[in-house]
Amino acid sequence: MQTSMLNTTALMEITARPPVVFARGDGSYLWDSNGKRYLDFVQGWAVNCLGHAPPAIAAALAEQAATLITPSPAYFNAPSLKLADALVSHTCFDRVFFTNTGAEAVEGPIKLARRFGEFHKDGAFEIITFDGGFHGRTLATMSASGKAAFEPLFEPKVPGFPKAQLNDISSVERLIGPKTIAVMLEPIQGEAGVYPATLAFLKELRALTSSHSLLLIVDEIQTGIGRTGKLFDYENAAIEPDIMAIGKGIGGGVPLGALLATEVVSCFRHGDQGGTYNGNPLMCAAGNAVIDAVANPAFLANVMALSQFLTVQLSKLAVKHGLGALRGRGLLLALDLGQDIAPQIVEAALQKGLLINAPRTDSLRFMPALNITEQEIIEGIQILDDVLAGLSDL
Ligand SMILES: Cc1ncc(COP(=O)(O)O)c(C=O)c1O
């Protein structure tokens, strides 16, 4: 395919992409190589929490790039120490290990839980995960995922991930046995279509895991860094997990993730965990810029205000066009369309200059920048209104 004189055939084909090449971004907007402007409700899949090319991240990266890009993970560097301190001070965790991707940030807790089981629970290694869950695309994280499309792929999978059902505590209880070491879940199943664990279920899960001396691992790669109006969604349930994986928003658009754990669980021995780029100063400088902005209580309060505004706008749209219910928390929302028309809507919205994502054929997912404005929300809703009005012509 030729797109504006750029050749795309040298890239490995791993997914269907529209014939658009993005050239520039600013806040909630992207411009393609032909100069067409798009309002972006996808934001790199809930990655760009401060929008495209935010000045704070651009300045932090430029300054760090001119100072020290990487000294090797065999040595300490100041930006990673600062970011680890900030994450520890804003959470119930004591220790941090930085990663480059979300999948790697989940792979780490799997290893850490297995190590903990080896040291403290007679080699217990099973981690109960959930149908519908998504934890990444390494072999272990695909095995931990409960995504039906992954089931036939890359057999044999990594063993030890029995699946329970979200919001059904007895389905978890039934799977607990002598080999169980942990339960792991996304507080909101994002890729499955934005299906939240109820806050009551999260509390029940904490009580159940504690009473069986099991670790509770939360995968906050999509829900973390202010996405649900708290810095992390586990705070909404007023629980304290043992391990957390983060990614996406923490880098504000650059590859950065982390696993966080309590002191007692942080039992890696030298050589168990590491990686060439892990905790490099350049990415951690971006992470520090993100935390400085997002951990501000006024910023988080504004996320909730924007969530309420978007919820009202989407509810009106749903009534007007006879659509279904809204799901999610904060600025991670999905609108049920009641029929399998999401791919057509995504395509028509793209033509009209709105980027939106369909995690299922019957739902649209909204994950805008956390600093989107009400005016930009109105603009996106108007485009969707136009698309829905023209649906019979699709
Ligand atoms: C909940 C969750 N876990 C893990 C991942 C994997 O992150 P990455 O794509 O950065 O490897 C994702 C990505 O969408 C995710 O949403």
Quick take:
It contains eleven helices and 19 strands. It has about 400 residues and is of the alpha/beta class. The chain has two domains: about 1-55 and about 295-394, Aspartate Aminotransferase, domain 1, CATH 3.90.1150; about 55-295, Type I PLP-dependent aspartate aminotransferase-like (Major domain) (Aspartate Aminotransferase, domain 2).
Low-confidence stretches: none
Give average pLDDT, whole number. Answer: 96
Query: Can you tell me the CATH topology of the largest domain?
Result: Aspartate Aminotransferase, domain 2
Radius of gyration: 21 Å
Strands ordered across the widest β-sheet:
6-14-13-12-9-7-8
List SSEs in N-to-C order.
EEEEEHHHEHEHEHEEEHEEEHHEEHEEEH
CATH H-level name of the largest domain... which superfamily? Answer: Type I PLP-dependent aspartate aminotransferase-like (Major domain)
What is the end-to-end distance? 24 Å
Q: Could you give the count of β-strands?
A: 19
Shape: globular
